[in-house]
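User: For my dataset I need records formatted as: sequence, then structure tokens, nothing else. Please produce one.
Assistant:
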Amino acid sequence: QVQLVESGGGLVQAGGSLRLSCAASGRTFSTYAVGWFRQTPGKDREFLTSIGWNDGSTYYADSVKGRFTISRDNAKNTVYLQMDSLELEDTAVYYCAAGIAGTWDFWGQGAQVTVSS
């Protein structure tokens, strides 16, 4: 089993920045990719970005490209999501997930991010 815990959410003004952390424990992450998603009430969960654990390859959704940056610290088993130039539409619950070969098998509990005007 893999346990994921998000932290770093909160309230921020539009144009500001936040950094989310996803701390992992349990089985080794050497073969897992880690992704960030978000969800707002009444909408499907939206993929934002992912990072390969071994090669560090990254992918971004168009909605966050250029504003959000994913990174990881292998020694700490932690993945980060740096969010800059935040917009009101970025308000959501943010989740990290871990998986292999395109499936997301493990999920965190979510962190609320609220962007105010």
